[in-house]
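[step 3/7] inverse_fold.run input=structure_tokens len=114
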């Protein structure tokens, strides 16, 4: 078995992470210059599908009409299930732990009797 790659083409990574349904669609979006990569503190707009990304890079892209910023956690050798794809990246909202309600709060204990 081969060792995991240290870098991967951006179009292939986007397809493995299930951001686009086909690799051709991922290639077309990248070729239009719609994705930005931040690597080693340097942000650049890319327009070549062969651009390499690594774990730790940050991607900024447009998805369903909203801007998505994500950090690459891992590279994949193949396109897996949705659960496997979600393990490849982290959204900034997921980086911070959820604030737990204060102890002693009784709002959760109330039950409607209607």
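[step 3/7] decode complete -> sequence:
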């Amino acid at each position: 078995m081969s060792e995991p790659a240290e870098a991967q083409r951006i179009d292939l990574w986007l397809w493995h992470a299930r951001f686009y349904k086909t690799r051709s669609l991922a290639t077309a979006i990248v070729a239009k210059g719609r994705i930005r990569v931040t690597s080693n503190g340097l942000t650049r707009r890319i327009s070549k599908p062969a651009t390499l990304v690594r774990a730790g890079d940050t991607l900024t892209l447009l998805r369903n009409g909203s801007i998505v910023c994500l950090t690459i956690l891992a590279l994949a050798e193949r396109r897996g299930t949705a659960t496997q794809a979600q393990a490849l990246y982290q959204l900034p909202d997921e980086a911070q732990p959820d604030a737990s309600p204060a102890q002693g709060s009784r709002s959760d204990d109330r039950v409607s009797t209607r």
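[step 4/7] annotate
Strands lie at 8-9, 35-39, 42-46, 52-53, 58-63, 66-72, 89-90.
Residues 104-108 have pLDDT under 50 and may be disordered.
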